[in-house]
Amino acid sequence: MVTAARLDFQGFGGVPIVGDAFGSPDDPAVLLIPSTGQSRAFWHGSARALADAGRYAICVDLRGHGDSGHASDGRYDLDAYVGDLKAVLAALPSRAVVVAAGLGALVAIAAIGESTAPLISGLVLVDANIWFDSNTSARLHSAFSRLTTVFASADDVLKAIISLHPDEPSLVARERLLAAYERDGSGGFRWRGDPRAVMTADIRGARERLAAAAAQIRNLPVTLIRGSLNSTISAEAVDRLQSMIEGSESAEIEGAGHYAAAEREEAFNAVLLEFLERRAPRQPISYIGGAEPRVLRDALGCFGTGVTVVTSFDGEGEPIGFTANSFSSLSLDPPLIIFSLAKTSGSLESFVAAGRFAVNVLHIGQQPIANRFARRDAPRFDGVDWTTQADKGSPILRGALASFDCTTYAMHEGGDHLIFVGQVNHAWFEPHRDPLLYFRGRYRRLHFA
């Protein structure tokens, strides 16, 4: 049997988040997040199956649950949970698939949908619903609050858990659910967490925020899983949420209620693993000549670059320029640099005729300039501070991280681009700023460990 290794993370506001890891850190990561009142042990069966299938599975306790820390400031709101999730994701060795149930699913929707950067490689939402009516929400909140009392026996604990969803199948996975409790000094069973974590305001009330976040989840493998006998989350609610998440799919686990991952473990794991192998495969995505160009573009996007604005003058003496990351040094003797320009570019002829150009390397504060020079319909130099350093120099953007003023040394055919080689006449650089970076289709910044 695959054994677990304990992991410790620092969550939002310094709250300790505890996890169990199954498998090798060299394998693709899958992060499993439980719901309100549960401990990370709820996911152990799925985690072992994932490890057997070549995944690195990490189960975590929510803040105020299990072995994770209590929030000294009482922060058990949506933003605090989102902060925890982002902190854990940032600490993992690779971009993870997130599998999240109930409250964990709502946290994942907010974190992923509201992020401007890609945080994960796939998303599995289990028993996710953002449209609880007020009566159901009040009933669940009251029932969850009762779970934090001290129970005389394990059977009493299970009766209280059953009361959450009384119309669903009887519980089979007793140990997984009882893992959230411990014996106290009097022999009773006490919930292993901070009662405030289930007694504070119900974040399911953040309907508009969650709906907006769900609608922003794009370009990501997503599936929604529901137990077919789930009495409080209808198939219609899941269909409604699925329709909001672009390209998502859904599946039902027959004969299961709220605890499908534990009660119908084999069926649930089969659905989960099939989805992962189909939409987030372990093997690298491959490009073969003649295949979809987007695949090759995504592969090339794995090479992080700086961001530049290449400038010159057109035949009328007006400044021209465009944003490019196709820039590289080529030679020191003579001093040569290169960039490439698409043959479909409207400024290609001007760059060819000019016989000169400048490359301006942008710093982290110049993303607005990068965006301006990337647009086709904007007067790119309006409001931009620039100068020239000589009569035959090209436009130099003031404040750039570095600038290279060049004469055209050579031009070469390069498929659908023309490659420009420039001989550097002058160069300037600012040693106290950090570069604006571009990686996998988004702007980035340096992170120092």
From TrEMBL:
Keyword check for Oxidoreductase: yes
Tell me where in this chain the Flavin reductase like domain is found. Answer: 300-445
Keywords for this protein: Hydrolase, Oxidoreductase
Keyword tRNA-binding assigned to the entry: answer is: no
Pfam families to which the protein is assigned, alphabetical? Abhydrolase_6, Flavin_Reduct
Q: GO MF terms on file?
A: hydrolase activity
Q: Domain of life of the organism in this record?
A: Bacteria
In terms of InterPro entries, this protein maps to: AB_hydrolase_1 (IPR000073), AB_hydrolase_fold (IPR029058), Epox_hydrolase-like (IPR000639), Flavin_Rdtase-like_dom (IPR002563), NADH-dep_flavin_reductase (IPR050268), Split_barrel_FMN-bd (IPR012349)
Name the family. Belongs to the non-flavoprotein flavin reductase family.
What is this protein's name? Answer: Alpha/beta fold hydrolase
- Lineage in the entry? Bacteria, Pseudomonadati, Pseudomonadota, Alphaproteobacteria, Sphingomonadales
